[in-house]
Design goal:
- The structure holds two protein chains of two kinds.
- Chain A contains four helices and no strands.
- By secondary structure, chain A is an all-alpha fold.
- The radius of gyration of chain A is 14 Å and the shape is globular.
- By secondary structure, chain B is mainly α.
- In chain B, helix 1 runs antiparallel to helix 3 and helix 4 crosses helix 6.
- Chain B has one domain: AhpD-like.
- The chains are: A mainly alpha, B mainly alpha.
- Chains A and B meet through helix 3 and helix 4 of A and helix 1, helix 2, helix 3, helix 4 and helix 6 of B.
Chain lengths: ~80, ~130
Amino acid sequence: MAWIRTIPSDEAQGPLKQLFDAALLRAGRVFNIVRVQSLNPPVLKAGIGLYQAVMIGPSELSRALRELLAVVVSKTNGCHY
Amino acid sequence: MRAHANDLRAEVEEDWRSIVNEATEREPTAAEADAFVHQAVQDWHGCSLRPAARVLMEFAERVTLAPAACVAADITNLRSAGWSDAAIHDAAQVVAYFNYINRIADALGVEPEDGLPHWGAGDSVSESATR
């Protein structure tokens, strides 16, 4: 469990339920990094939009280059997630 | 880290030329792709990268470790490696996004995902995934 309260899937309603449903369709699960933002659905929604635009949207940088950048940054930060 | 490494593994075969060697004729084998991701997680400096990709990763490291120390010459360096300003912009966005989301994960105690392969240690994915 994260260190703050999060909302279980079966308690999600309205905009949060829509975001959880979309995450399930996309990834087959609600990732912990998504659920930890469940107390503020507008911020969660904006963050997912930024992620998709930056990581999946059109770019001269290949998808693999962008994923390698993600690994390099996370490793440099010592972030285990 | 583990979640991102998994995403890298999903893309590395198709985009092999963009990160390892532009001139390569064939796709990597699954074992080669696995080995690349293990090495990237263990120590990306040891990955076989094409020069332009290496310069981009060094930029990512610099922006992450010492953002205020970045200078215009860093951008000139990226241009010299062949990157357009649009590509440099997009790289900065990726680097900034992951610095942001890493801090959300670390600050709020986000736990690793269950059931994802363990990259960066051990000899094979399937072996380490059963630990």
